[in-house]
Specification:
The protein has 352 residues and is an alpha/beta fold. The protein has 11 helices and 13 strands. A 7-stranded parallel β-sheet has the order 3-2-1-4-5-6-7, with helices on both faces. A 6-stranded parallel β-sheet has the order 10-9-8-11-12-13, with helices on both faces.
Length: 352
């Protein structure tokens, strides 16, 4: 019989297995929010002396014990995705055979393709909108769903949300900086739903310089979007600098006049808006999903309903206090709080 933390004595050490999306690496500079959250959670567990095991693509940076799987190199095709699912499922089964695990925590949209048959409690953080998931995977046995915002939880319909755990960031990596702020900034993964082309349109209408930063992931439709809708709008004042590491991202955020988030997706949260606030930089965002929960209108930025609203809001950026932005981030967006909330959820599920 498998010995669990709940019945192995009060001195037992919790062991958590985090499972990432198969084909993108985990790390502090990852282009995906789920990968960044997993990195911070794994680090927080290790710092609190909780055994952390991570199944993620090779080259991932983790604090615990990494079980690496192949990384997508050029383009993510359906064949590669199917192969990755098989490898992930086999790796999870291998870990469960060789290691004691108390909780399995899934972070990938496609987790249903490799969720194992096991009595180990399974936590699923819904990093993306609920309708994007296979509905059958959300109702499997032993599945405990976590929303990352109240807005997302309210959108779950008949799906049972076990807990809301708001995302967090490493506040110490994003601090306000002195100096003149000239360019506005768009930062994220370059894809249609993130509205990169809309940010370029806003910058052109406001006649402001714009820096576009972030990866074009190896999906064919992402690359096609960049070529057809983003690249033609670039010029001497609106430039694309490509993917950026954590240090460069922090510099861009702390030196930006404002961050634009013209997202067309029902955002579940926004790490980059949190990072901007911590950097003392106001955000101008569309009223999409949970963005109004993260961007406090007229406190840490402005909520806009359309392109014209966004252009007009840029004229009011000087009304936002960088100090107030940072103070709000420290109070509400700390990754330490997020890790504490997840540990409490684990212990509640295990009854310890």
């Amino acid at each position: 019989m498998r010995t669990t933390l709940a019945n192995s004595g009060c001195g037992a050490k919790m062991r958590v297995l985090d499972v990432a999306f198969p084909l993108l690496p985990v790390g502090p500079g990852s282009g995906g929010g789920a990968e960044q959250i997993l990195y911070l959670l794994d680090r927080g567990l290790a710092e609190r002396h909780i055994d952390s095991l991570v199944i993620a693509a090779e080259t991932s940076q983790v604090s615990g014990n990494l079980w690496p799987t192949p990384l997508a190199c050029n383009e993510i095709t359906e064949a590669k995705r199917s192969e990755a699912h098989t490898i992930h499922r086999c790796t999870i089964e291998k870990v469960l055979r060789s290691e004691h695990v108390d909780i399995i925590h899934f972070h990938g949209l496609d987790f249903g393709a490799y969720v194992p048959e096991t009595s180990v409690p399974k936590v699923v953080t819904l990093h993306l909108p609920v309708p994007w998931y296979d509905p059958h995977s959300l109702q499997g046995p032993g599945i405990h769903l976590v929303a990352v915002s109240e807005t997302q939880a309210a959108s779950a319909g008949d799906k049972t949300i076990s807990r809301v755990v708001r995302n967090g960031i490493d506040i110490t990596k994003h601090l306000p900086a002195d100096g003149e702020r000239t360019s506005i900034l768009w930062l994220g993964r370059v894809c249609p739903e993130k509205g990169t082309h809309i940010a370029l349109e806003v910058a052109r209408r406001a006649d402001l310089p714009l820096i576009v930063a972030g990866p074009v992931h190896p999906f064919a439709f992402h690359r096609d979007y960049f070529r057809r809708q983003v690249e033609p709008l670039l010029d001497s004042k609106r430039v694309y600098v490509g993917p950026v590491g954590l240090g460069e991202k922090a510099k861009l955020l702390s030196s930006a006049r404002a961050l634009l988030i013209p997202s067309l997706a029902p955002e579940t949260s926004s790490l980059v808006a949190m990072e901007a606030a911590s950097s003392g930089t106001p955000t101008v965002a569309f009223r999409s999903g949970a963005l109004p929960e993260v961007v406090q209108d007229e406190v840490t930025g402005f909520i806009a309903d359309d392109v014209e609203d966004m252009v007009q809001a840029l004229d009011r950026i000087g009304d936002i206090s960088p100090v107030q932005c940072h103070e709000y981030a420290v109070e509400h967006f700390s990754s330490e709080r997020m890790v504490t909330d997840y540990i409490k959820l684990y212990r509640d599920l295990l009854g310890v």
